[in-house]
Amino acid sequence: MPRRVDRDDLRRTRTPRNKIVMHVKHRAAMGFSLIELLVVIAVVALLIGILLPSLGKARRAGWTVRCQANLRSLQVAQQLYADQHRGHLVDVGLSHGGVGDASLSWTRTLESFCEGVLTLRCPADRSPYWSLEAGGQGLTINGASRASSYGMNNHLSRTYNPGLSPREPFDRMDKIDRPSLTIQFLIMAEQGDYAVSDHPHVEAWGDASRGPTLAQRQVQIDRHGGPPRAATSLSNWGFLDTHVETLPFGAVYAGREINAFDPLVATISR
Predict the structure, then answer these.
(1) Domain membership flag for residue 51
(2) Which of these, 57, 71, 174, 180, is most buried using a 10 Å CB contact count?
(3) Tens digit of each residue's pLDDT, the chain (270 residues)
């Protein structure tokens, strides 16, 4: 006959509750198993892969906005300067190749017309020609370091204008017919001779097909996005009416007859 199991037998065969608790505590003390650890690592790696591009994009967008603020400050300082100097524009003084007179440059002239500190470095600028003190690599061109991320359109200069029109120099506000379409400040190239200059030579950029390649040697036309040396390269541009825009290069330069640099033809292609 089957053996009858009474309550006393059941109590004797049950695992005591305190032993179960001790087993769980022991398991916890041992930590994760190898498989569990690998799963956690895989999940973390997946999350990093998803989040990093978004974080990088947000950081670059922040750089663009801060750069716009810098350019806007320069344009406002230029307006204050013009108000006190019969409508005249500031001038350039730092030629490409590390020569020139820094005391004549707008980088010095505008210092006393800017509210607070004149910020001359774009947060995205990684040029090796910044001095060691400025956080750069200390490289120089003929002894000259990079003084500013920004440069001034040479069409508006008294001393380095192209010399192609009898109406030059366009060095006063009353000579500019369309200030809202005329660029004054831009971002200089981070490499090459123009990295230490405070202005480009726009007249050397040629037609629309060669413009992006030639301009890239003087101006960082892709500083805020897009491919390098292309009409779709994105950069910030400061206009004489003090507004700042992030625009593709093709919108501000489509050849010598269609661009936002020469006051005679000032146009933006949208």
Answers:
(1) yes
(2) 71
(3) 555 555 555 455 555 555 544 544 444 445 568 887 888 888 887 777 776 676 677 888 999 999 999 999 999 999 999 999 999 999 999 999 989 999 999 999 999 998 888 999 999 999 999 999 999 999 999 999 999 999 999 999 999 999 999 999 999 999 999 999 999 999 999 999 999 999 999 999 999 999 999 999 999 999 999 999 999 999 999 999 999 999 999 999 999 999 999 999 999 988
**CA atoms within a 13 Å half-sphere pointing along the CA-CB vector of 252:** 32
Task: Measure the CA dihedral 252/258/259/264, to 10°.
Answer: -150
- Within-domain flag for 190: yes
Is residue 263 situated within a structural domain?
no
Report the predicted TM-score, pTM, of the whole model to 2 decimal places.
0.81
- Contact yes or no for 95/160 (Cβ under 8 A): yes
Query: Does the residue 259 lie in any domain?
Result: no
Whether the Cβ atoms of residue 259 and residue 203 lie closer than 8 Å to each other: no
Range(s) of the domain holding residue 97: 30-252
